[in-house]
Predict the 3D structure of the following.
Amino acid sequence: MRLLHRHFIIGITGGIAAYKTCELVRRLQDEGATVQVIMTEAGTRFVSALTFQALSGRPVYSDPWTSPEGSGPANGMPHIDLSREADAILIAPASADFIAQLANGQTESLLATLCLAREIPLLVAPAMNRQMWQNPATQRNIAALREDGITILGPGRGDQACGEVGDGRLLEPEELLQHLVDRFGPQSSAPEAARFPNIRGILQGASIVMTAGPTFEPIDPVRGITNRSSGKMGFAIAQAAVLAGARVTLIAGPVHLPTPEGVARIDVQTAEQMHQTVMQCIQSTSAEIFIGVAAVADWRPETTQPGKIKKNSGSLQDIRWVENPDILAAVARLQPTPICVGFAAESGSLDDLRALLPAKRQRKQIPLLVGNIGAETFGEDTNQIMLCDDHGVTLLPPASKLELAHHLLTHIATLRHHST
Ligand SMILES: Cc1cc2nc3c(=O)[nH]c(=O)nc-3n(C[C@H](O)[C@H](O)[C@H](O)COP(=O)(O)O)c2cc1C
C-alpha cells in the first residue's frame, strides 16, 4: 500500500493505448490510492466511460457542461474543484492533439481546462505513432511542456499498434505506477538508493546534448566496422540527467536499449552522422553541456561498396581507411563553448589509464575526461571510472552504471556552478 491516502486524477485522451490505463487504475487502487478518471470525448471512443467507472468506483467526468448523474460539485465547476482534492494529474495516454492543447493553454475539453486551472503536478505519458512523436511540431510542444515544469513520462520504444516500430509507446502500467510511487509514495526504501548522491534538480534547466553507443561504418551493404559498446553507460547518464532536471538530447549509435523517460533520442549509424547531428542539436537546443560517451569509430572505409564484396575478389584488403571527425574536439572549438565532458574507453590496466588521461584531456582541451577500461565494461551493468580534471585523476569505486552516472553528474554540476 505504497500510495495510501493519495488521490490521483487520471486523464484519458484519444489513443489506442487507453486500454492499458484500465490496468493502471486497478494497480493504483491496489496500492491504496483513490482515482478520479476524466476522459476526453475522443478517449471515450477507445474505452467506454462505463469501464473506467466500474474500475475506479467513481463516476467518470468528460463533458465540461454536465456532471455525471448524481455527482459533481455544488458550484457546478468540476474543472476547478476536481483537482483541488488531488495530489497530481496523470494524462495516460496523452494524444499528440492533447499535448498540443496543453502546450498552447487551450481548453477544448473538461480535462484540458482542468489542467490549465490546476495547482498540482501534471504528468504526461505520450502515446502515438512514431512519426507523430518525431514530428517537429510534437517535439516543440513537448519541449514547451518541459519548460512549463510538466513531467513527461516516456514514451517507450517498440512495436506499435499501427504495425510500425519506434518511439511512441505508452509506458507500461507498472512503469507508470512505479513513477507515481517514486514521486508520491513513502521515501524510497531501495537500499541501493542510499548510496546514490541525491541529484534531483542539480542541473535544473540545463540543456545537455550527449552521445552513446558505438558507431557503425559500412564497408558494403552487409558488412561494416563497429565496436562492442552497448550504450548502457550513456543511457544511464541520460536517465540520471533527466532526474537532475536537465533537458536531454541523446544521440545514439546502433544499440538495443529503451529510451530513458523524458529523453529526446535521435538514432544515427555512422560517426559522420553523429558528428552532424551533434552540431545541429547543440545549436538548436543552445546546449550548455556536451557529454561524449559514444565509442565513435576512429576510422571508416573511404567508400562504401554498392554491392557485397565477394569472398575471392581481394577487395577487402584494398579498403582505404580515412579518419573520422573528432566530435569532442569539434564541440570544444565552438563559441560559446559548452562544458565538454569526454569518455575514453581504453584497454590495459587502471594504471595505464591513469597515466594517459591527463595528456589526452590536454589534447582535447576539455574540463573533464572520464576514463574506463572498454573491454571490461562494454555490455555490463557495472563499471569503474576515473575522472580527470584540473585537480588530477580520481578513481571511483566499482559501481552500477546508474550510480556512477549520479556521481558524474554531481561533478558536472560543480563544473557548471564554477563556470557561471
Ligand atoms: C483508430 C485511431 C487511433 C488513434 N490513435 C492515436 C494515438 O495512439 N495517439 C494519438 O496521439 N492520436 C491517435 N489518434 C488520433 C486522436 O484520437 C485524435 O487526434 C483526437 O482528436 C484526439 O483527441 P483528444 O486529444 O481530445 O483526446 C487515433 C485516431 C484513430 C481514429
